């Protein structure tokens, strides 16, 4: 596959100094430009006024919660506005477009070009042997999918992927369809995202979700922000951090890169913010070595242990005694970790660690730790996140007002999808309840996650791939290998809003099914429908789009699932597909019967528009095997690479939403007009005999296997020595499919061993 993304968009590289503050006027300007140029003024204004408002729609960009008290008229951020502009565009892709461009022509275009073509406006099919997509009716679509699925030797040969924008209603119906059909092959984007957080937290405290509320962030004494770039990826979080700082809280950032949003925030909702006079966010910024977080947190624990032994009351003994298990073994593990290796592994000076350890004990010890992909996408991610839990347990900073754990979710409903059962290994209680309500025996054998799905397709064990949203080929590791896997399928099918590269890597037969997005009006049999989404803090909210759909051929995700269900399964005693799709209240009534916490779901949505799901760990009830919160005692193991090699992380620029590339700039990092770049420490650059902006080839090394990706530009940047960074998804070719986190099986997108060499002339 020609996946080495094209250079056609690249202009003369424009390098500026990276920024020391985020948002302010440039962000407001950039948001409005995006929205008005894509959606037009009237449609754009309507969309923005409804974004994250109580009777509006949930922003499709990230899962950060909306404030409960005063909601600003413009409760959105630059990147949310970009996501909405992208969806609200009036440009459309129809059969004429696919007549003009063959699949090979489209493959040669860049991801940013795909994004600019507009909304897919009618269902399209690529028949066996064809070079082009052609139009197909919805009735034929459903027949074709049902026929392909029925032809498989076993339902386990089908793979049903979900991205995290799918609503609760669609997700619930989708997993029901898949389980009625007979498999648990429900991989999702979470497998590549916060799976490590879920795995670590479930085994340690019995829930896989964050335990704090937005109000608790405002009131915290100390907030650690680890491995996250909120200025770009969760910009509304900056208002919450600003509020915490104004209330006297301290924010400490732990990140190998100095990210602008964590340094200072110019709040565009405030007059001074518009003048770009920012609030300083972080009181301490620790430029940890890549993957040095486990060592750093262990060093904090070691510091505390020394203080405790010297007579200072650091540990919360009452909490530890009542609520936890495994302290003695953890203490042994702390004692076994020697200072010399901890310091070498994290690259932070001891005095700075002591300062951090002190800050974490401030005030009433209302300590909150937030984290994202910088922790989850490493080989030892689960062990590292369990160390986060360990330090919280030592000081009782969980399930107490103001203190707790906060994995910051990515996709706007990725957490809700899991709650609804989108998971290849749901717990037995979920299956029991599903079986009772729907009077069948759901399959119990665990299904494939993302990496297992890729391998199954390669081995001929996965033959039909259906994607409910997302862009599987670009989001997954090892692009060429994943692409090859998909082309081995008999059918690939994507339910999508916009054109993406996964549509161009086709099975024998391929379908593109256009669906409504969050901002679109969804009129069902009983009138306009709303859906619900769960944010990063367990709040379920209603979301209702209001823009006129760009084509009468778009179907809601629920409608598409029901269409497949009717053809594949047919109506059963408990599931009438058209009836359910006609009014989402009927789906919500079923959700209420199967999933705890949703009692009076419809009534509450109608009245309050929001419900808070119970979080047992936040109440100090531990659903672990031992019914206690469990310390872990793993040895600190930091990623090491061969002499002269580097640890590469793949990350997001300011101008993209995952695989959707809006533009070629990364404003806060000072990059203009380029994406095929690699950030390197200036001294490493010099040692390699390279000049700034020189063209280089990157080679990833995995157990003797080498993968080369040619022609990147080397950019000197303030990054620890031995570390390199390049953008996702261009750099995904370098992530070996077998390089995964222990336990969670998440691709190690932040820990790839590479070497760098000048490109041949
Ligand atoms: N605008 C916009 N918003 C988004 C997205 C988007 O693409 N665009 N994506 C959404 C999704 S799905 C997600 S999951 C989130 C992602 O949100 P983030 O996790 O913020 O995304 P990344 O760009 O992957 O950034 C990872 C951060 O971790 C740091 N890091 C890398 N390695 C290490 C390490 O070893 N230790 C530490 N301490 N830090 C490290 C990097 O320097 C970087 O700052 O954002 C969501 N929101
Ligand atoms: N190397 C590397 N790889 C990574 C990561 C990384 O940091 N580094 N991050 C990983 C993470 S955190 C994640 S979450 C995954 C993301 O993986 P995915 O969720 O698979 O990817 P997205 O780019 O978010 O999907 C974008 C596509 O979704 C479709 N879409 C948008 N809105 C809707 C909608 O409302 N309904 C439907 N049906 N479709 C819609 C559009 O067609 C669009 O092209 O990537 C992972 N891959
Ligand atoms: Mo994500």
Q: Brief overview, please?
A:
The chain has 761 residues and is of the alpha/beta class. It contains 31 helices and 33 strands. The structure holds ligand MGD (2 copies) and molybdenum atom.
Low-confidence runs of at least 5 consecutive residues = 1-7
- Tell me the helix content: 25-40%
Number of helices: 31
Write down the CATH topology of the largest domain.
Rossmann fold
Strand proportion, as a percent range, falls in 15-25%
Give your account of this protein's structure.
Helix content is 36%, strand content 17%. The chain has 761 residues and is α/β, with parallel strands linked by helices. The chain has 3 domains: 85-191 and 413-610, 3-Layer(aba) Sandwich (Rossmann fold); 195-407, Dimethylsulfoxide Reductase, domain 2 (3-Layer(aba) Sandwich); 642-758, Beta Barrel (Barwin-like endoglucanases), CATH 2.40.40.20. Helix 2 crosses helix 3 (78-88) and helix 24 packs across helix 26 (479-487). It is globular, with a radius of gyration of 25 Å. The two termini are 24 Å apart. It binds ligand MGD (2 copies) and molybdenum atom. The site of one ligand MGD has 32 residues, from helix 25 and strand 17.
């Amino acid at each position: 596959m020609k996946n080495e993304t094209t250079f056609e968009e690249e202009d003369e590289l424009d390098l500026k100094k990276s920024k020391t503050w985020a948002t302010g006027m440039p962000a407001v300007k950039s948001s409005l430009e995006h929205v008005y140029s894509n959606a037009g003024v009237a449609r754009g204004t309507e969309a923005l006024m409804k974004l994250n408002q109580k009777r509006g729609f949930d922003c499709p960009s990230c899962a950060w919660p909306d404030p409960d008290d005063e909601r600003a008229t413009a409760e959105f951020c630059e990147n949310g506005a970009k996501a909405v502009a992208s969806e609200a565009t009036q440009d459309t892709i129809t059969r004429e477009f696919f007549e003009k461009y063959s699949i090979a022509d489209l493959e040669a275009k860049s991801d940013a070009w795909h994004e600019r073509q507009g909304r897919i406006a009618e269902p399209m099919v690529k028949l066996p042997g064809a070079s082009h997509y052609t139009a197909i009716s919805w009735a034929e679509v459903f027949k074709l999918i049902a026929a392909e699925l029925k032809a498989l030797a076993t339902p386990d040969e089908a793979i049903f992927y979900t991205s995290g924008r799918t609503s609760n209603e669609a997700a619930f119906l989708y997993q029901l369809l898949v389980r009625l059909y007979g498999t648990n092959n429900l991989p999702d984007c979470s497998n590549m995202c916060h799976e490590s957080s879920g795995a670590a937290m479930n085994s340690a405290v019995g829930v896989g979700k964050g335990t704090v509320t937005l109000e608790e962030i405002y009131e915290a004494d100390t907030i650690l922000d680890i491995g996250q770039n909120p200025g770009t990826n969760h910009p509304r979080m900056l208002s919450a951090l600003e509020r915490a700082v104004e209330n006297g809280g301290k924010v400490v950032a732990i990140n190998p890169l100095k990210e602008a949003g964590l340094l200072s925030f110019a709040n565009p909702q405030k007059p001074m913010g518009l003048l770009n006079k920012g609030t300083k966010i972080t009181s301490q910024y620790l430029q940890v070595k890549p993957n040095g977080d486990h060592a750093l947190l262990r060093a904090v624990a070691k510091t505390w242990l020394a203080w405790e032994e010297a007579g200072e009351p650091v540990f919360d003994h009452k909490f530890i005694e009542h609520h936890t298990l495994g302290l003695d073994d953890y203490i042994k593990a702390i004692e076994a970790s020697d200072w010399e290796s901890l310091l070498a592994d994290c690259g932070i000076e001891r005095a700075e660690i002591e300062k951090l350890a002190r800050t974490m004990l401030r005030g009433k010890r209302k300590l909150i730790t937030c984290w994202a992909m910088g922790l989850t996408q490493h080989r030892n991610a689960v062990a590292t996140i369990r160390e986060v839990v360990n330090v919280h347990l030592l000081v009782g900073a969980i399930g107490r007002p103001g203190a707790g754990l906060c994995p910051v979710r990515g996709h706007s409903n990725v957490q809700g999808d899991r709650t609804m059962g989108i998971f290849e290994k749901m717990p037995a209680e979920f299956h029991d309840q599903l079986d009772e309500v729907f009077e069948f025996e759901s399959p119990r054998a665990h299904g494939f996650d993302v990496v297992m799905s890729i391998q199954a397709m390669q081995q001929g064990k996965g033959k039909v791939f259906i994607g409910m949203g997302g862009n599987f080929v670009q989001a997954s590791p090892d692009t060429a290998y994943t692409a090859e896997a998909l082309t081995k399928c008999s059918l690939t099918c994507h339910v999508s809003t916009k054109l993406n590269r996964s549509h161009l890597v086709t099975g024998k037969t391929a379908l593109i099914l256009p669906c409504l997005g969050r901002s679109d009006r969804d009129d069902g049999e009983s009138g306009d429908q709303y859906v619900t989404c769960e944010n990063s803090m367990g709040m379920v909210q209603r979301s209702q789009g209001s823009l006129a759909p760009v084509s009468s051929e778009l179907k809601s995700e629920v409608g598409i699932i029901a269409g497949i269900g009717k053809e594949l399964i047919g109506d059963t005693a408990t599931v009438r597909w058209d009836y359910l799709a006609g009014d989402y209240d009927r789906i919500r009534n079923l959700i209420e019967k199967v999933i705890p916490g949703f009692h009076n779901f419809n009534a509450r949505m109608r009245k309050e528009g929001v419900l808070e799901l119970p979080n047992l760990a936040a109440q100090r009830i531990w659903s672990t095997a031992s019914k206690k919160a469990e310390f872990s005692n793993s040895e600190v193991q930091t990623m090491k690479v061969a002499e002269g090699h580097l640890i590469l992380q793949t990350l997001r620029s300011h101008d993209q939403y995952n695989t959707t590339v809006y533009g070629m700039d990364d404003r806060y990092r000072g990059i203009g007009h380029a994406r095929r770049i690699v950030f390197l420490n200036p001294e490493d650059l010099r040692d390699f005999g390279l000049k700034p902006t020189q063209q280089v080839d990157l080679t990833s090394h995995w157990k003797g296997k080498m993968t080369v990706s040619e022609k990147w530009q080397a950019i000197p940047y303030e990054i620890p020595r031995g570390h390199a960074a390049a953008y996702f998804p261009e750099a995904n070719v370098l992530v070996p499919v077998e390089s995964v986190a222990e336990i969670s099986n998440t691709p190690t997108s932040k820990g790839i061993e590479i070497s760098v060499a000048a490109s041949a002339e």
